[in-house]
Design goal:
170 residues; alpha+beta; 3-stranded antiparallel beta sheet
Length: 170
């Protein structure tokens, strides 16, 4: 079951109430009806759909919610992630700080910050001179604090600056 199917299944209020009651410990249809205020026929119909989807199972101990369905739905629905670096260690660092093409926060560990800055330096072509406004525009796509990024790229040696003109270091 994918995430859309799971959400669709629980979008029906009676099924959501029945599932919630089972999660909270209702072990029989009567207990579900008592806790939800739903009639036995509504509870029975909802349980049938929940059994069919394997969201609720019945065993010798009564009704039980199978919460692993949620993890499985997320895992199967997750698109394959394109690595940000061919080097697995660098990719792990980048994956911790870059989401959807944006830098989520600045690393506090200098070695990790260096990996992130080196990655961001790839936004600039070698041999091209950039006015400060162009550097700001490029870096603002990565993070709102483009001034800090610009300064750190220079401080770490990834960009050079002369008379407010920047270029990528060789």
């Amino acid at each position: 079951m994918n995430a859309d199917q799971l959400c669709g299944l629980l979008a029906e209020p009676s099924r959501l109430k029945v599932y919630s009651a089972v999660v909270l410990g209702a072990g029989t249809p009567d207990q579900v009806a008592e806790r939800t205020g739903l009639g036995p026929a509504v509870v029975g119909k909802a349980l049938q759909r929940l059994f069919k989807s394997e969201l609720v199972v019945a065993d010798s101990n009564g009704l039980r919610a199978d919460e692993s369905v949620f993890k499985n739905a997320v895992r199967t629905g997750r698109p394959e992630r394109e690595p940000l670096s061919a080097d697995p260690e660098r990719d792990n660092v980048l994956r911790s700080f870059v989401r959807d093409g944006r830098l989520t926060h600045f690393p506090t560990v200098p070695a990790k910050f260096r990996v992130v800055l080196e990655y961001l330096a790839g936004s600039f072509e070698t041999g091209v001179q950039y006015p400060e406004s162009a550097v700001n525009e490029i870096l603002q796509r990565w993070h709102d604090d483009y001034a800090t990024l610009r300064r750190q790229l220079v401080d770490y040696g990834f960009l050079t600056r002369a008379d407010a003109v920047y270029s990528r270091a060789a």
